[in-house]
Design brief:
The chain is mainly alpha-helical. Helix content is 63%, strand content 3%. The strands form 2 sheets. Strands 1-3-2 form a 3-stranded antiparallel β-sheet. Strands 4-6-5 form a 3-stranded antiparallel β-sheet. Helix 15 runs antiparallel to helix 16, helix 15 crosses helix 19 and helix 22 packs across helix 24. The two termini are 38 Å apart.
Length: 639
Amino acid sequence: MSDPVDVLEQLERQADRLVAEFADWAAGQGLDADLFVIEAALSSRVAGDGVLDRWDMADVERLLLDWFPRKVTLEQSGLPGVITTLHHWVDFLVAARGGEAGRVDVLHSAVERCAAEFRARMSDERNHGPAKFWMTRMLEHGVDVADGDAVNGFLGAVQAGEIDYDQDVLAEIMRRHAAGGEDGPAFQEDDSAPLPPVLVPSEGELASAAENTDLVVRFRALVTWVGAGRTLTATKRLRVADARELALRLGVDGAFLGRARSSADLPEVSLLVAWARAARLVRVVKGRLLVVKSSIGLLDRPLDLWLRAFEAFGALGPAACGPESPYEAPSLLGQVLPEVTLDLWLSLYTAGEAPVPVELLAGRTREVVTAGFGFGAGGLFLDLREMMWRRDLTAVLTALETSGALELRTSADPWERDKIAELSGRDDPDLTLVQLTPLGLWGVREALRAEGFDAPSAEELAHAPLARLLDAIEHCGPEIASSLLEAWATSRNAEVAATELAAFCVNGPSPATRLLAWAALGHTGEAGADQARRLRSEGGVAGGMATEWLVSHGELASGAAGHQEMMLALSENLAAAHDHGILIDELAGHPVHDQLGLVRAMATAGHPDSVAMLTTISHDHPRREVAAAAAEALGSSRR
């Protein structure tokens, strides 16, 4: 697996080289171009899929309708220059970077089609990201954003209520920020692209898992203990004697009970009661804690009870971060807990089966908290404040672990520990890894759907159109992708499925998605083999892939495969790696001699993406001899 830091640095170097190439090309053409626009455009791809020199209509739309409005601060007078420069960029991609000439008109049309909406979105602050919102306020107030003291003074004035700003606009920005990740909606609101599919257990397995969670067990114990009601203190807390009694029922460590002078000294009890109130299992009426009678039936339906509590977690606010202290201000993280929770769900859900370092979650949480309250990276946002919200994040994750939604473990792998330290930039990073349980995965999917996200289930995708299925699983892990492809193929008549898949193998929009169609064809039995034989007879890239497929499935002897067929199949596989931005990594895993052979194969195979692949290798490959071979092959192909 590639080092994320190395990959990012490599992409940034590639972007710098592209900007320089574009500047030279534009000067040679006598064109007036704004290099800042291209730098911003490439930043969007570095932060996204990492593919810098291949653009399609969707990429143009994301850039103009999402990235620029969220991220880039420009005067209104500079907006027409963005459109002009992007038109030049399209011409540059074809003239100097081996782009497909046939796509020029399509990309120019996409730029023009987005121009009016681009200007409208740049003018509507609700489309801005949090950082851009505060940057704009500072510029309005004449703050030199390069002056740290001036920035901190401005933020202090914000905290003191001395700076007027539209709080409704900021609230909408923060809602979109939580719903879309790093700094905004990530095109989620306007884009139909689904979240990655996940595999969840059956309803019976989920109910059994919920039955055995500490949370469900404790809720049942609480409701039984409350009985006909319990009198509360004037501050609506449990009396200390009652808190101790409940703690004993819950199995709380008895060493803490004797020292408790109020229920606040028993955080597990305080959290449970607050959570039960948020989940509408108990309520406070005239100074007494009472059971909500309409919720008693949930106690016999563990999965429904668990989901009710899970959905209520964000409403806990500061209570999820531990008991309030008279010596501290209310938890900052707790005050934006719904946004923090949604951001956690998106991070963990999109990670699939991979555990996520707490340090990465902490970085995202920091962005939510700082953007919500206008703190900068220094000054007001001191180490003490960060220590406090990190403590609160730990309390939130511990509570969610108690619910059975998460698993927490400490990394014991030295390499993994080094990577966490490197990614966090801290000398003493938190080495905790976080992963959703199967029950948590299901709960998060339900929560994201309630927020309007397209989070498809395996069952839904099994009956979805093929294009939707392949789009949904393109970035899934191999186990999930294989399971979903099999489910889709076997849910249909084998001949019908094989015919549809074969058509996609020929006409699919990208090599990466076409490879998925070939994988699905393997689940259609003899009907799939018949389609592969037909495609082989028709030749071309699909014919080469059909040959590779027939050999790998035992339908054709390897000696019967033609050299040109196998070179086309090899090129299609490398083109798929190029789609994912890992072509250089794929090549670098082979000895240099073999890499040179692969470059020659690309040059002679006749694959439609060969020019784009050779261009990438010639510009970005770290081995000089491989880059030179690609450049030579590229020159020969153009003569």
